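Let us practice reading a record.
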Amino acid sequence: MFQLINVPMKASYVSLFFVFLWTVPFVLKDTTLAQNLDSVQPIYLTSFRGCRKTVGVSGAAWFRSQREISIGRRLYRTVANINSPQQLGRNKPLAVICKIAEPGEPPRFSQLQLSLGFNDEQRRTTGGSIRVSVYSNGNFKESKIIIFGTPTNWVVDIQGTEDLGLEFDCLNPTDGTYWGDKPSNICPTLYFLDDTIQ
């Protein structure tokens, strides 16, 4: 005849306690990871401290600016701009190099997201276009031409990049006077809508 064995209640509580202690670290680890992922903030190239102007007039290459502008009769929020009347013009290019990985450390960024455009308000100076070129470790990657009426968006593969370079060339100066400059000598202000690296 079989006999039921009664397990003492204290033993059951002890077993449950050890199971609890074993699972808590994994729960906390997953929670901490989720919190860290949620707290990751975008990194903007124009706010990167390792950037240096290599070609162009003295002063800052670009300015952080958060404002709403109209592009193609739609509103967009900017993150930065290049004050083109002072920085860019006929035979007056601008080049910037950003060190995004220190020597000896593996490059941690894999892509650059860019979105650029001109404010519709600047149409009083008709024409105007800027070519933006991207370089990785001194090697040309690709370029886009920015024109009025629509933002230019693209993603650049920057895997393995230590030195990230951007060059800006005023291809088609404006046809009207702007801030006292002579006609056809300058390009309109270039606005960054996005310039995150990840």
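A brief commentary: The first strand starts at residue 43 and ends at 44.
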